[in-house]
Amino acid sequence: MRMWAQRVARGPNADDGENDHDSIVVFGGPPYQPSANQTSMQMLKELSSSIPVLYVARTDPRPLSTRRLSDLLRPVRKVGPGSPGLTQGEGNLAVLGLPAWCNWLPLVTPEPARRLQLFVIRLLLKRALREIGFKRPALLVYWWMFPEIVRLQCWSWRVFDVIDRHWGYEYLNAGARSANWSLALRTARSSDRTVAVSDGLAQELTRELDSPVPVLPNGVDVRRVAVATPQAPPEGRRQYGRKRAAYVGGWNRRVDVELFVHVVRSLPDWQFTVIGVESVPELSEFDNVRLIGDLSYDEVIAELSKSYIGLVPFRVNEYTKASSFLKVFDYLAAGMQVLSTPLPATEAAQIRFPGHVHVALAQDWVAMLERISSADDVLALDLALLPSTAQRAISLMTQPQENVTRGRVS
Question: Is the full-model pTM beyond 0.70?
Fold first, then answer.
């Protein structure tokens, strides 16, 4: 680890000149899963392609409700990125996995649990920075619940990337929502720059902060998509037929289940594919629904390319109105048409990509699906027109010239 740390801390293209930062710490996000299609994983991959990066995260992706006590007592056998401790990832990447017992504690409330993890994170993070030799690291923040880490004096530059309305989850009680919101604001005020993936998030934060929060939408890894998508014209790839629609993502409270069931029941001659879910009781009676569990991102794109329309069947509420949906760009990248309920992010995509993105009220979905499937062929969107993860990473970490270097690792 020591020899690798010396190589990573310097970087493959390092020179003797002074830079604003010589490395980046990406703080928080899901457990390290390079195949996952998630904003923090995308930024991690793009940034570590050109500069040394340390990723700090938990090690178990499963929700707390799905775990068993025996899991806590079982010895950790996994070794490598995503396991507890400091490990080497690909190229310029190092991963700091928190101890396994941290997976069992809530991150926000109660406050003693948050404080305990804060103590452990601060200790392990300082130790890791010394071991891998990061001298002037910038900080990219996804974990909004630890403003104390953001305020450490070692960072040369702090960016808070707000990718979700963490304080607005429906399952949170009033106290937990208030705690999440308070911590998110403290983290924003402790950062040199705060950005948001959607207009809704940016507007909500701007109302509470001293300066406007810019919008930096999600993007697509166009290089990866180009490899994963079958290289054939749309009419060739539609050999499976136009009456095929797909949904990819979690099956949670934002999904309008009643809408999805109504559509499936109303179009028995269509085939519907749900990717990322292994069981949906409400859909079990339908023969025209196929459920596929978790897939790698490459497999997701390849599977999507077999369908004609990508679905965003979400309820319209404060949470979804503030969201930016990666799946819209994935559908477009896979050569699909897109149908969504009326949400600000998808309405903006409809304006940007007319003819490819369609928005309709729930009661009009069946008619809209039939209309899209019977319309003239629309050429697949040129990947170059989609927002790219590479450009987002560059924009995200661009540091204004007037910024003053904060300090050094002590």
Answer: yes
